[in-house]
Inverse folding.
């Protein structure tokens, strides 16, 4: 079997495959496995048994549920590597839970003395994007102050253990909103009151410009005190971005949990998602809360079939699963979970108001849609398909005659097969850019490998569709749960070879160059994950980046050139050559700005890395110019209160201070202090950093007494 890590990877794959099977095929699979690998079969049987006892009712499972099942079965899982450490003023206790991206510990804060939930990002997946998403979760939660939202106490990065962390209020006896209701046998009215509390919290998040995007029972917790707490803003996105993009999410990335996901989330287009997507998820949770059944079933479905089901199937009427559910509640669920966003409640507050009417016995505003209305929604959503069907109905007779002749024409059949494979390619490739850390990564890889095999069968290896699908497979293996850098490198080489020989492509084609980029990244990722540093391999990785850079930097159509520059900047920074790092980051910024425009969120992120490098070199004049420009851009695009803007305001105050301009620094830092207090939270650790700089600015103006009295450290308490 190889190493334990290899065994678990194979066991994970077997588990995620077998839970999608029906009972008979599941037994056959285990029996067949027992003939070739009895040990793994026993472990798999343990996982299946543990899965049957899990609370999530999730249908399709991923890494988060898999780790829970492993722990329940006593197989694998985190051994609590942080237990016993002191990090950021917290004494880390026992591991109390973990998921695909991190672990949660019970911890004790020393001052003030209290128990907290200490959440850490798994080091093995803590690349720049994962860390940025984790930091954004902390920032989004810190922006929100509401009795039904878990409070962030502090957050940071621990240099010794190399983990990002955040401390959140501890919820004693926490259970999901559904599990708590079932265990305590709560009445329908009591359940609706819990749901209204959750709606109040989500509405507050929306009012502060934050979407949750992963609302589900396990993210709506109820403690022993009966209070609802909304948690896990790891997939949250700021609403203020005009083009719908964010640092945390890329086009093509499907985020959320399928059971509760809205149809528009399955498109992978973040611009399609707004507050009504959270309305849909709350409606799906409401269905489960009042019926004690999941809103959807994916039994026996592959991932693409499940996604299609989400897009094309309505959430059932609750009263069919529970006859005690009223018609008014049926109408609330139907309106919240309407497939077309325009037909849903326009806000969570509207949905909550209808729940209040149900509790009071008053008529609700929602009404369940009839068949005609559903047909109108479908025509509005699929106008081209509706038109095509109309034309097809008119031309039925002539089509049947033509089809009988065409079926005998092998050349036409081959052309049709080629068109089908190209349609598959056109639908899959938009999701290739950034798969992200998603629980569905293993399923997506299976789909893409099957699509590649189909293209090779129809078109041959040396074809643009085959090359493009090989490139997508290379991306898939570089990211997400169960990623494999060597497998990514192998697929990248397949894509390079295929593109170089394919008619119309060649070695200088976009596919060939992007495949070379992915191959270089995969090699670098493999080197970074070695247990012992290998200087020779590190130098080889850098050499490959440097060799590729002149070729791709001149090509605006190669999206990955800016990332290559950023990687070289990180290499230079790791070597302590900050001047070279700044040069690489500046070139990445200039290139990205030229292609995407200065207001693009990813360009702003790249410029923030440049600012950080300039600050480390104490090149304050240049840093100030960058910060002035960034603040102008952010405020000009209605992002004046975003966490990035607040951070830039604080850094601008620091730069003015270092340039011996204390009066201007004071003005800027007072503004930053107010922003942190009002927009992030009065007890957030960033506020102390701002006050530290403020005191320094006042001391520089011979106002030391005022500094000591006016700008004391705040107590990091709730």
């Amino acid at each position: 079997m190889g190493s334990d890590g290899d065994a678990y990877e194979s066991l994970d794959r077997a588990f995620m495959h077998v839970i999608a099977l029906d009972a008979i095929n599941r037994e056959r699979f285990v029996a067949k496995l027992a003939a070739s690998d009895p040990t793994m079969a026993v472990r798999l049987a343990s996982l299946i048994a543990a899965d049957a006892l899990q609370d999530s009712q999730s249908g399709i499972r991923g890494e988060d549920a898999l780790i829970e099942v492993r722990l329940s079965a006593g197989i694998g899982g985190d051994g609590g590597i942080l237990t016993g450490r002191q990090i950021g003023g917290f004494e880390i206790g026992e591991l109390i839970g973990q998921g695909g991206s991190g672990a949660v510990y019970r911890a004790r804060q020393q001052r003030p003395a209290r128990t907290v939930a200490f959440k850490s990002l798994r080091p093995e997946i803590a690349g720049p994007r994962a860390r940025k998403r984790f930091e954004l979760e902390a920032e989004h939660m810190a922006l929100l102050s509401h009795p039904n939202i878990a409070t962030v106490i502090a957050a940071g990065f621990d240099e010794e253990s190399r983990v990002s962390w955040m401390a959140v209020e501890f919820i004693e006896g926490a259970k999901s909103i559904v599990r708590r209701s079932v265990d305590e046998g709560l009445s329908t009215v009591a359940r609706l009151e819990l749901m209204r509390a959750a709606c109040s919290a989500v509405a507050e998040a929306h009012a502060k410009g934050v979407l949750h995007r992963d609302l589900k029972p396990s993210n709506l917790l109820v403690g022993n005190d009966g209070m609802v707490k909304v948690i896990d803003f790891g997939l949250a996105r700021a609403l203020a971005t005009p083009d719908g993009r964010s640092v945390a999410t890329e086009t093509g990335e499907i985020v959320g949990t399928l059971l509760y996901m809205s149809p528009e989330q399955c498109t992978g287009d973040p611009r399609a998602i707004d507050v009504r997507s959270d309305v849909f998820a709350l409606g799906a949770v409401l269905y489960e809360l009042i019926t004690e059944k999941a809103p959807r079933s994916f039994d026996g479905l592959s991932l693409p079939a499940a996604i299609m089901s989400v897009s094309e199937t309505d959430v059932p009427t609750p009263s069919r699963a529970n006859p005690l559910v009223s018609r008014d509640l049926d109408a609330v669920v139907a309106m919240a979970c309407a497939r077309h966003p325009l037909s849903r409640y326009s806000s969570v507050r509207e949905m909550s108001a209808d729940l209040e009417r149900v509790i009071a016995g008053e008529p609700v505003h929602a009404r369940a849609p009839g068949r005609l209305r559903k047909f109108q929604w479908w025509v509005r959503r699929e106008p081209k398909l509706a038109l095509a069907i109309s034309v097809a109905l008119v031309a039925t007779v002539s089509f049947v005659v033509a089809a009988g002749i065409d079926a005998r024409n092998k050349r036409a059949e081959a052309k049709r097969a080629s068109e089908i494979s190209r349609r598959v390619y056109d639908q899959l490739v938009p999701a290739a850019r950034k798969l992200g850390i998603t629980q569905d990564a293993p399923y997506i890889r299976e789909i893409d490998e099957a699509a590649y095999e189909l293209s090779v069968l129809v078109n041959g290896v040396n074809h643009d569709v085959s090359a493009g699908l090989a490139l997508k497979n290379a991306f898939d293996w570089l990211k997400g749960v169960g990623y494999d850098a060597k497998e990514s490198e192998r697929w990248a080489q397949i894509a390079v070879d295929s593109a170089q020989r394919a008619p119309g492509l060649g070695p200088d084609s976009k596919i060939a160059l992007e495949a070379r980029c992915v191959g270089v990244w995969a090699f670098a990722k493999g080197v970074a994950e070695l247990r012992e540093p290998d200087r020779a391999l590190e130098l080889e990785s850098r050499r490959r980046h440097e060799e590729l850079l002149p070729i791709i930097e001149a090509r605006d159509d190669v999206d990955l050139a800016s990332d290559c520059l950023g990687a070289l900047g990180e290499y230079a920074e790791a070597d302590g050559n900050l001047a070279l790092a700044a040069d690489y980051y500046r070139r990445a910024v200039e290139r990205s700005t030229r292609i995407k425009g200065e207001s693009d969120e990813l360009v702003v992120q790249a410029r923030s890395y440049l600012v950080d490098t300039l600050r480390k070199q104490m090149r304050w004049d240049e840093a100030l110019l960058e910060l002035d420009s960034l603040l102008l851009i952010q405020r000009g695009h209605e992002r004046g209160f975003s966490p990035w803007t607040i951070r830039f305001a604080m850094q601008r105050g620091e730069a003015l201070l270092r340039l011996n301009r204390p009066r201007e620094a004071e003005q800027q830092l007072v503004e930053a202090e107010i922003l942190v207090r009002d927009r992030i939270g009065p007890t957030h650790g960033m506020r102390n950093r701002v006050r530290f700089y403020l005191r320094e600015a006042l001391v520089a103006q011979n106002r030391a007494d005022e500094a000591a009295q006016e700008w004391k450290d705040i107590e990091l308490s709730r």
The longest strand covers residues 90-98.
